[in-house]
UniProtKB/TrEMBL annotation:
It is an enzyme of class 2 (transferase). This is Hexosyltransferase. It comes from the Eukaryota. Belongs to the glycosyltransferase 8 family. It comes from Zizania palustris (Northern wild rice). One of its GO terms (molecular function) is glycosyltransferase activity. The keyword rRNA-binding does not apply. It holds the Pfam family Glyco_transf_8. It is a single-pass type II membrane protein.
Length: 368
């Protein structure tokens, strides 16, 4: 919380709140009155919103498991849970909320999903329970000081947010009984049942992800890297391919046994050493260094990435050929920003149905 206050520099007058959605009408009124979660306005401390931005969200519709789903106990260690980890921060909040919404809407067994939210401000957990009253989740504070000394300062700023590195620490942050987790970025939506992804067999691999062996792998590393025999030897005996770290299945039990967190940190230390950079972009290259060539391949349908395009308005991307289970707006353009600016790309229309942001309520809050 202190950190959030420090980076935003001042407490803004704007507030986060949740307004009552019409979808709530599916709840019996008596229950609605009993539960304090059903107050029509749930307000959050002003410092969360950051800057002078007011954000209000509608409450998601109720969801229920299908009859043949296994019944979960509510204990995070229940072995029948599907585990999903996702970050929540003020900048990508609208995206994270839409991602969660898309997951529960497409799941046959939404009550059997356990979410793990990595946050820069623990109060964001209150927002999640107000928007998704039924959601089973835990909140984990990620201390930015854990990576501050390991992050380089000279690359694109968005890629150097400390929370981007929280995925490196899932094995430490999550409960030891959580042996496997799906990590999802905040700029994506699922259009299929996440349980199908969860059933992917990783074999003896630690990381599962769609691989792209035609992508130019060498461009992620600098000349200093490629000219150092010792560095290059790290890839000896493997066929390294690019993979996107925005959608990954992680075998946390194996990760803990093999100490991969430390291996990733060692590459980050080399990157920060005075001898010069060995790679360009943020949190991805250390994953490539440790895991590329040892990844369990996941069907490409689970990461149709690149839909964000670049900074230039109008540079819209199309889907890759083949079936689609997950749409990922990686790249610098985000659907919520383009929709807000009234200049969306055609595919942004596929993100919009999962958006729970309420512009009218946000505007009302703005003018208070
Ligand atoms: C789960 O619980 C419900 C309600 O108690 C019950 O009807 C259903 O048969 C149970 N499902 C399983 C797979 O045990
Ligand atoms: C791959 O990227 C490197 C570094 O940017 C470049 O020098 C090389 O020509 C590229 N290779 C191909 C086949 O495009």
């Amino acid at each position: 919380m202190l950190w959030a206050a420090r980076v935003s520099g001042f407490f803004s007058a704007a507030m986060l709140m949740v307004v009552l959605s019409p979808s709530l009408q599916s709840f019996p009124p008596a229950e609605a009155i009993r539960s304090s979660q059903f107050d029509s306005h749930v307000r959050f401390p002003s410092h969360i919103a950051g800057g002078a931005r007011g954000l209000a969200f509608r409450r998601a519709s109720a969801f229920r498991n299908a009859a043949d789903c296994s019944n979960t106990t509510g204990n995070v260690c229940d072995p029948s849970f599907v585990h999903i980890a996702i970050t929540l921060d003020e900048d990508y909040l609208r995206g994270s909320v839409a991602a969660v919404h898309s997951v529960v809407q497409h799941a046959m067994c939404p009550e059997s999903i356990f979410f793990h939210f990595l946050v820069s401000d623990p109060a964001l957990g209150d927002l999640v329970s107000a928007v998704f009253p039924q959601l089973q989740f835990n909140v984990y504070y990620f201390d930015p000081d854990r990576v501050r000394g390991l992050i380089s300062s000279s690359v694109r700023q968005a890629l150097e947010q400390p929370l981007n590195y929280a995925r490196n620490y899932l094995a430490d942050l999550l409960e030891p009984c959580v042996r496997r987790v799906i990590y999802l970025d905040s700029d994506l939506v699922l259009v299929d049942d996440v349980t199908k992804l969860w059933r992917t067999d990783l074999g003896r691999r630690t990381v599962g992800a769609p691989e792209y062996c035609h992508a130019n792998f060498s461009k992620y590393f600098t000349d200093r890297f490629w000219s150092d025999k010792q560095f290059v030897e790290t890839f000896t005996g493997r066929r390294p391919c690019y993979f996107n770290t925005g959608v990954m299945m992680l075998d946390l039990a194996r990760w803990r046994r093999k100490g991969y967190t430390r291996r990733i940190e060692r590459w980050m230390e080399i990157q920060k050493s005075p001898a010069g950079r060995i790679y360009e972009l943020g949190s991805l290259p250390p994953f490539l260094l440790v895991f590329a060539g040892h990844v369990a391949p996941i069907e490409h349908r689970w990461n149709q990435h690149g839909l964000g395009g670049d900074n230039v308005f109008g540079s819209c991307r199309d889907l890759h050929p083949g079936p689609v289970s997950l749409l990922h707006w990686s790249g610098s353009g985000k659907p919520w920003a383009r929709l807000g600016a009234g200049r969306p790309c055609p595919l942004d229309a596929l993100w919009a149905p999962f958006d729970l942001y309420d512009p009218a309520a946000s505007a009302a809050e703005w003018s208070r």
